Amino acid sequence: MQTRRPLMAAAIGTALLALAAPAIAADPAWPTKPVRILFGFPAASATDVIARAVGQKLSEKWGQPVVIENRPGAGGNLGTELAARAPGDGYTIFFGTVANAISTTLYTRLNYDYLKDFKPITLVSITPLVLVANPSVPFGNVKELIAHARANPGKLNFGSGGVGTSNHLAGEMFKRATNTDLVHVAYKGTPAAYNDMFSGQIALMFDNIVAATPHVKSERLRPLAVSSKERVETLPDVPTLAESGLPGFEAVSWIGALVPAATPEPVADKIHADMVAVLRDPDLRRQLASAGAIVVGNSRQEFARWNEAEIAKWAQAVKQSGAKLD
Hints:
The chain has helices spanning 4-20, 46-62, 77-84, 98-106, 142-151, 166-178, 190-199, 209-217, 265-279, 282-290, 300-321; strands at 35-39, 66-70, 92-97, 118-133, 156-160, 182-186, 204-208, 222-226, 252-260, 294-295. It has 326 residues and is α/β, with parallel strands linked by helices. Strands 1, 2, 3, 4, 5, 6, 7, 8, 9 and 10 form a 10-stranded mixed β-sheet that branches. α2 (46-62) crosses α9 (265-279), α4 packs across α11 and α6 (166-178) crosses α11. The termini are far apart. The model is unreliable at 1-26 (pLDDT under 50).
């Protein structure tokens, strides 16, 4: 009898642990109520457009509403903080962006830890930046730009939507890669920068392909290169920076799905499987490609490595720029 008691105790303990496990982890019917996709940018932003397209497909797959929740503010940090504090039940999906990779080292203090407070799901899409110029500049490609900038140090300027934004830091990365002295001019948002681009007060700017393409098509701006590894379907004649003599140069905007860290692994895995399936939908891929986005849908492990690499990459640009925000 004495030899049977430890075995019985172990069996009872195992049963109790099974009963104590989160019910959601064993619930094959998840989701049983609406799911929200939360992010830190306003309606009509690139993140919003992509989130709504993906959310619609997920809603069809799950048979539940997928609610888009915009929480703009503090460079995307307000929405990130709210998502980090959300219940870990799978009903909040956070759409992180390149801004999160930048904020990790740009801000001296954050009320969340991007790597620790979230579980990665998948990289949803990549949106290249385009290096555009005012048509009056005396160069027509990147090689000519570099030669002109080196011959005129400190006389060529580039604009951005603000200190620490991806288009600012892409410019800093370009300066470092080309050993050129370009002057940064920060604006309160890219619309103001575009106004001065059109009038010729600033010569250059990196910007999201979704925003830049209409101005390229209307010939108000001259495209010099895209910042992705490969050429982009919407601007097929524009070379990459790598093709233009800067091998390995890549600085892109991106959107990735994450969930609060407490979310059970089975639920995180289901969200991953369903989201990747949705991202393979031909109609969705065509819809996002028409806006300039490159759909990805990789593994959770690959997206985790992507986040770490992006933080390291943008940290170098932050350090070079000297930018720091509270």
